[in-house]
Structures are given as C-alpha cells and as structure tokens.
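Bug #77: duplicate submission created two jobs. Keeping one. Sequence:
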Amino acid sequence: MALLKDWARAGVTTVRDVGGPENYAGADENNKDSHSTRLVTAGPMISVPGGYPFVPWGNSYMVAVVSPEDAHQKADQLLDRGADILKIAVEHGAVFGLEIPALTTEEVSSIVRAAHERGTRVSVHLLASADLAQSLESEVDDIAHMVVDDLTDSLIAKMVASDTFWEPTLELWHNVGRGFGPRAIQNLAKFVRAGGKIALGTDFGGYNAAFELGMPIKEMRWMQEAGMTNMQIIVSATRNPAHVCNLDDQLGTLEPGKTADILVVKGDPVKDISILGNPLLVIRNGFIIGREE
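Kept job's structure:
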C-alpha cells in the first residue's frame, strides 16, 4: 500500500488494480485514508482451467470457470466478497506463440450479465484482434491493452459503436519490446481517429520491468505520438478512467456533488502536458495532500 501514497502525492488520486489477490478489506481500509490513492480492485482474474494468466506466467490470481452457469455464479461470488469491478481474460496466446484455452463467448456474456445486474463493469485482458472480436460480441465495458496485430477498420467501428473503452497500456508494450511499442501506437492512432474512447493506464507491475511511478508522463508522451491532443489525454486521465472504474457518478469531472479530487498546476497542461508531473497542490476527497507526507 506504500506505493498508493506515492501516487497520491504525485496527483494520481485513483488507481485500478485488476488481476491481483482478494484483498478487498485492505482496499477498503486504504480508501479511508485521504493521504493515499483510492484503490479500485477487481481481485483475481476470471479465466478457465489452464488459461491466462496461469499460462504463461504461473499466476495464481485467477478464478477458473467451466460453464456459463459457473461463470455467473463465480462472478457473483467475487462481487459478494467485495470486488468493485470484474476482470476477465480472453486470451488465446497468439502474441505468446502459444495455444491457451480461454473463456467462450457464452461464458463472457454470462459474466457480463452478472456484473451489469449488480451495477458494475467488466474489463477484459486481451492482446490480439481475434480475441477483441469475440469480446465485443458480449458487450464488455473496456479492453485492457492495445492489440499488437492487424487492427481492422471494421473492428474499430464495432468498438466505437458499442461505446467500449480502451486502455492501451503503451508503457507495457515499450517494456516488452519486440517492436510492440510502435505497433501499439499505430493501432491507438487509428482508434483515436475513428472517435474511440481511451482511458489512461500503464499496467504498472503487470510485467517484469520498471514502470513509471506517479504521474504517467511517459504514457502521455506516447499518446501524443499516436496523435492524441493534450485535452484528449487529460480526458483519458480523468473522466474516462472514472467510467471504467464505475465511479463516474463520483469522480472524473468537476461538478457540484462530486468528490473533490483536484490537481492544481502552474501553467496550462493543454499547452504543455508535462506540467501535470509537477503539481502545486493535490486534493484528494477534499483533503490537501502535502509532498512531505
């Protein structure tokens, strides 16, 4: 939880954690501390036996389902235990050069129904366009990671029409290397030109490499390379993440009745996005966070 205080001091007042342990009580306790970044947590990823992330990472933070009925039941159980949102894996392993079993369309649809019945959202891990096409059949809410194969105009049109949000996690792809960083930027550029909605995220801690802690300026620079304007980037870091965190009735915009999460900077980030990396004042839940804390 120490990192959450670092994020808070840097002006990142909410972090979404997907695909981790069921530490819902710890997240709730953390969220009472106005010195700490608010944590939105999914807990373990919903997958299938022998599926991602167990293959290829050996990750134990997953719940395996074997049928649509089982998928609905286990989704409900995660929500009963305290999950804020749900994270699922639709990953057949193409990018890894593997064949990995994955959720069926029926199972994904069942999980989405369970979440939507409870008033929350479903985020999908995927890396390839074929898995994106399958996920969009089930009305999922957002996609974690930009695909790094051929992203067709027709698939982009389906995603835009369904109002599905995308977290490109460009820093992840630059950390992975193998030419995936530039390819992710190219696909993001196509999606943005088509009017797609972006939520900023880096996949911090999701790969065995160093990620930028605090305000994700590197991620924002790569978004600029994809043709996003500074205002589009600001929206991707405020209003849109509030939506995918299922908190858009509380956060993301400055409106009467919403929680006072405010970043005060010297200068105009619409002209220079790097200004966000050096805030004069951070207010989280109406509480001023000091740099010395």
